């Protein structure tokens, strides 16, 4: 089962590499990038709400869930400020933002991308601990959100002068760390108390929500315009239905 945790986490990470390849080799209109990113964000918001937070509150209680959400959000915000100041503020933008950003650093972009993906992967690994198998809704949500995420970032990195090899190495590294994070989430939390597991799930949820608000949704709106609100809602509804069918 631990191996399956790695496989499922790596599958979510594989979407990042697929998105990067599309961004590098397939001409994609800005509006399409915005719409797909909004769809992925909506799917992820729904999965976080129903697959992580709701389940965590049932297992560990409302207070534990609230604490995990707040701590996860603050932790992501704190680390995001550090990597943003070092040149990774626009790591998911497809425009000239990275090119124009002072102090841009490939390492900071890599660290920022890893930071964005780890909470999602831990959530996938933790979903296996219930004994009923992986949360399909969570895996689909991560996959759908990761493709436009890396697509947009790869386009922006290319415009900033990063080589194709460097871009692909970056996202391959994120893929491997995603699998490892899912594996660690399963192994380390295997004997955890329900309250501990609930806290970790909500910690990941808080980090994911903060990531969406600070990176994915601004880019989606910039690329797709006001209509992305409708697309985000569509993604939310699709994931909600999927969670009820699972």
Automatic annotation (TrEMBL):
Q: Which keywords does UniProt give here?
A: Cell membrane, Membrane, Transmembrane, Transmembrane helix, Zinc
Cellular component, GO annotation: plasma membrane
Where does it primarily localize?
Answer: membrane
Example of a GO MF term: zinc ion transmembrane transporter activity
- Annotated membrane-spanning segments are 6-25, 32-50, 62-83, 122-147, 167-189, 196-217, 223-242
- Name its cellular compartments: Cell membrane
Report how it sits in the membrane.
Multi-pass membrane protein
Family membership noted in the UniProt record: Belongs to the ZIP transporter (TC 2.A.5) family.
Tell me what this protein is called: ZIP family zinc transporter
Q: Which organism is it from?
A: Deinococcus yavapaiensis KR-236
């Amino acid at each position: 089962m631990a191996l399956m945790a790695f496989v499922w986490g790596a599958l979510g990470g594989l979407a990042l590499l697929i998105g990067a390849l599309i961004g590098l080799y397939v001409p994609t209109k800005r509006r399409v990038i915005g719409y797909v990113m909004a769809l992925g964000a909506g799917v992820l918001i729904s999965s976080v709400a129903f697959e992580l937070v709701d389940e965590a509150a049932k297992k560990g209680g409302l207070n534990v869930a609230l604490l995990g959400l707040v701590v996860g959000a603050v932790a992501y915000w704190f680390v995001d400020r550090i990597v943003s100041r070092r040149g990774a503020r626009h790591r998911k933008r497809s425009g000239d933002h990275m090119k124009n950003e002072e102090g841009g650093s490939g390492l900071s972009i890599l660290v920022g991308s890893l930071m964005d993906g780890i909470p999602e992967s831990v959530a996938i690994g933790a979903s296996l601990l219930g004994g009923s198998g992986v949360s399909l809704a969570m895996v689909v949500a991560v996959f759908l959100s990761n493709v436009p995420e890396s697509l947009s970032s790869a386009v922006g990195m290319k415009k900033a002068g990063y080589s194709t090899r460097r871009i692909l190495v970056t996202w391959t590294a994120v893929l491997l760390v995603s699998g490892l994070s899912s594996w660690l989430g399963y192994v380390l939390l295997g004997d955890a108390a329900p309250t501990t597991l609930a806290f970790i799930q909500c910690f990941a949820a808080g980090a994911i929500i903060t990531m969406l608000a600070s990176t994915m949704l601004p880019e989606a709106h910039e690329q797709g315009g006001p209509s992305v609100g409708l697309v985000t809602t569509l993604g939310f509804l699709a994931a909600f239905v999927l969670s009820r069918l699972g």
